Amino acid sequence: MADDKSAPASDAPAPSAMNDDLKRRMTTAFGWVAGGSLGLLVNYGLFLFFGEGYPTTPTTFVTFLAGAFAGMHLADRLGVRGFRPLGIAAGVLLVCFAWIVVAGLMSS
Question: Is residue 32 part of a domain?
Fold first, then answer.
């Protein structure tokens, strides 16, 4: 008879490995948000610089996508150590973008 005290080895990952995996995925999301927000802010700056003739619809799409992919690339390169700086950057840039939207709506 087998000894009941011996338990089979668990295939579940260690808690620190799960935290690292979660942080890595959150870092990627923060990179998307920070990069996309920065792209939209750059596009708004270009609109202010060039004026009414600036084609906002295609450039908004392109700058958001370029920023989001650049942020994701940065997040992938930084890995877990980029969690805090990209999280802070995502929050700050998203708030700046929201302020511009609210200011634009209030001025109309």
Answer: yes
